[in-house]
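Notebook p. 47: complex prediction with guanosine-5'-triphosphate.
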Amino acid sequence: MFSQLQNSFQKVFKDLRGQGKISESNIQEALREVRVALLDADVNIKVVRQFIAQVKEKAMGQDVLQSLTPGQQFIKIVDEELTALMGQTHTKLHLSNTPPTVVMMCGLQGSGKTTTAGKLAASYKKQGRKVMLAGADIYRPAAVEQIRTVAEQVGVDVYAPGTHMSPVDICNEAKRLAEGRQVDLLILDTAGRLHIDDELMQELVQIKESATPDEILFVADAMTGQEAVNVASSFDERLSLSGVILTKMDSDARGGAALSIRAVLGKPIKYIGSGEKLDALEPFHPDRVASRILGMGDMLSLIEKA
Amino acid sequence: TRTSSTIVDRIENLVPGRTEIDDEMLDEIEEILFAADLGVKTTTEVMDRVRTNLGRRLKVPADLRPFLRDELLSMISVTGSGDDTEVRQPPEVILIIGVNGSGKTTTTGKLAYNYIKQGKKVVLAAADTFRAAAIEQLQMWAERSKAHLIKHQHGADPSAVAYDATKSALSREADILIIDTAGRLHTKSNLMDELGKIARVVSRDIHGAPHETWLVLDGTSGQNALNQARQFLQTVNITGFILTKLDSTSKGGAIISIIRELKVPVKYIGIGEDLEDLQPFDAERFIDAIFGENDQPSQESKYV
Ligand SMILES: Nc1nc2c(ncn2[C@@H]2O[C@H](COP(=O)(O)OP(=O)(O)OP(=O)(O)O)[C@@H](O)[C@H]2O)c(=O)[nH]1
Ligand SMILES: Nc1nc2c(ncn2[C@@H]2O[C@H](COP(=O)(O)OP(=O)(O)OP(=O)(O)O)[C@@H](O)[C@H]2O)c(=O)[nH]1
Ligand SMILES: [Mg+2]
Ligand SMILES: [Mg+2]
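Predicted complex, structure tokens below:
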């Protein structure tokens, strides 16, 4: 699959050799290939449309550099635009001046919130911070046992009193406890929910209002399809997200959801999840993810060398 | 609002005042199919079919909807597979597999409830011994559905759990044994091998087991679902799909190219997090939902 785009590009660009300028007629087919690549990667169709228009505008009329063929130069433009759109590398959470820093996790069912909460805890614990987890999922069977187990595996405190308290109360109490225990970082794990579930979305709003998190992170599965951006937008509208974490990037999914969410929300992608183990959390590298979405990692490195 | 407009609205909106199927209209249809996660290949094929039928079966805009419905329906009708007439000696063994977080454990619980409601005796095997509290999670589903649970400790060998569950199902004269496995990415060969091993273990004591192997696919996933299905099929003999989370706004259209390529039917869909939120797959309803004809099933009005 990854080489498919490269092959078609090579074919397209063979015909472009020797043409001095990039023009509408000589990139029409190339643009079509880019469009297919993005759609195969699950980039939202509307985002694809915008992006193609943008690339076209940028590419048109450019003089072809001495060192490159028009094709290579076009790919370079596509890649640069895509990388720019993906934002910068972010590796840190915004830590509050008055600890504890409160981080709230949210997202659809099964996206990886609880696991990612554990990974963040592990990462900040390693940096010498005092971390505490709070389990505010009172719906999923054994969610309490899961967050407790995760906390134990990481070796951090956990407040997960069970299902008799409301999620809002759990978060408030956790914050109170964290303040008393000199905790640096408190991570609130919430239950998975659909963005169209008004009642449960309202619950998140209440948690936000009473526990005043410093970070509200939307956890998205890299395998998500076209709806990713609508889902993320709904969460953002209700909660004003501070960032996104993209999980399950150890799959072979191209992760177009990342681009869609980033393009529409403009919120930074802070980390990627790359495994089930609690150390599998990595900084987000826009250039790598851009190449992955295009499915042309090798070709780009060749061009870099050219 | 859940989605800005349903697909039907949008096709319908194309129609008023326009008597001809024009390029703009075709573009809009294409966008609609993409938005439902049909992917490039299937969408392109559908659009090709539309184009070749212009002026024939497609004369006016109102012809579009029934035409598209028929086309998609024919794409997902799997014939010649799923031979359910064969009488099996109980216990029937069902192996539940899929990538992380797709809904396997929840589906296992719903299935157990479903069979028990039909008067069947069900044993569940907690063969996810890896994920934190996976065993406890299935245990709660066993309690809810009143199924018997076979479990080992966290970290135990999943095949050993399957082995014990097989013995237990036989000695209790259970009708159904459902094995819940750990989520695994289709790209991890060691974990895929583990599945093969579980399947072999149950086949030793029960002839033809696992009789059913159901791949649980997340209905919100996109084009990667096809890779998942292909790869799992390399390891085990998938007899059906279960498409979960269709109570979301996703249409689950990625399944169309999967069914077309692999010729494996969808058995059930998941439409919520409760015991009863499982429905037999109905191709017509599924396609109609893609076209927004009936609204997504909600908590109050599940389509029966
Ligand atoms: N391969 C892989 N699996 C992951 C990753 N992150 C999470 N998972 C797995 O995905 C599944 C779901 O993870 P959870 O953390 O339970 O997801 P959640 O969002 O808390 O789920 P709910 O609380 O039910 O909404 C588990 O099997 C995790 O091990 C990742 O980066 N890679
Ligand atoms: N809305 C909705 N949520 C579902 C559905 N099926 C499962 N879920 C939720 O999705 C999340 C993950 O479900 P699980 O059953 O734990 O998924 P799994 O495949 O067993 O996960 P792992 O064992 O970690 O790989 C849970 O929060 C479930 O409640 C469904 O049909 N609709
Ligand atoms: Mg969770
Ligand atoms: Mg499970």
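Notes: The longest strand of chain B covers residues 212-218. The two ends of chain B are 24 Å apart (CA to CA).
Next step: compare against the earlier run before touching the bench.
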